[in-house]
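Final report, closing paragraph on structural work. Over the funding period we assembled a curated collection of sequence-structure pairs, and we close with a single example.
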Amino acid sequence: MPTWLVGDRWVYDWTSGQESGTKTIEVVELRDVNDVRYYIVRVGASARPGDADAEHYYTQALHWAAAVRGGKVEARMVPPHPWFMWPLVPSARWTHQGRFEQREGPTTYNDRFTVIGAEPVEVPAGRYEAVKLARDSDRRDGDEYWYAPAVRWYARWLGRRGDSQFEERLREYRPAPRPR
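Its predicted structure, as stored:
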């Protein structure tokens, strides 16, 4: 399981339909909330609409827990959404039943995750050895993402929400200095 440090930073090029832009993600803090340690990750202002300037909370296992803007929780997943289950071994599978809560009301998720296996990925930041994963659901959405150990996060993410598709491709990874 990777460890993030304050200052780790990822920059992605994204496309969604005819729109495109840049998304910057940076670890800005480690915070304990109700005896659980979270990475607080700030998503930069040029992100996809709705993502800009939000702080996202991830558990130490990199499970997505919430999005907060201006000190107010805008969305959260109960329990946190497990993009990854460590170790990532080919053919590993897990499920997640969760409640996504936001202003428009709650939505129940029934997700199935599968580790497809090792697959190199080529993105603007370079070529990385990666592990490809897939998320499938009872809804009309799904994801494929390539976790790259060298960058401690995904190098590419291909998503579908209903009839819409989006893609994020790593443009730059800037790790915080690691203690020796």
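Residues 121 and 127 are 6 Å apart (CA to CA). The radius of gyration is 16 Å. We thank the funder for supporting this effort.
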